[in-house]
Amino acid sequence: MQSQRLRPAAQREERYLIGNGTTSPRDRGTAHYLGPALSILFGLPQDRIDIEVTVADQAEVALHFGAHKRIFLEKLGAPPLQ
Question: In this structure, what CATH number is given to the domain that contains residue 57?
Fold first, then answer.
């Protein structure tokens, strides 16, 4: 039984682009399997879901994660990281 929210989405003719970030180049191959699985889950034709996989360097991810962690800690009022 489809959800009341998903039913109108399935009736529209829109295409959906799902972006996925990873640090492993091997994860690009999973998009081939993930697209059909998500289309079944959402009750959409398989040709209406596109998955874009972006591979980033682990050092770049660690740099950005550190910045996000610092901002989050500032919002919580915690002392800054040393």
Answer: 3.30.429
Alpha carbon distance 31, 53 (integer Å): 7
Query: What distance in Å separates the CA atoms of residue 82 and residue 6, rounded to the nearest whole number?
Result: 47
pTM (2 d.p.): 0.54
Asked if residue 1 belongs to a domain, the reply is no
For residue 25, the SS3 value is helix
Q: Each residue's pLDDT tens digit in the chain (82 positions)?
A: 445 555 555 566 788 888 888 888 888 888 888 889 988 998 888 888 888 888 888 777 777 777 777 777 777 777 766 6
Residue-number span of the structural domain to which 61 is assigned? 6-76
Residue 41 parent element (H or E): helix 31-42
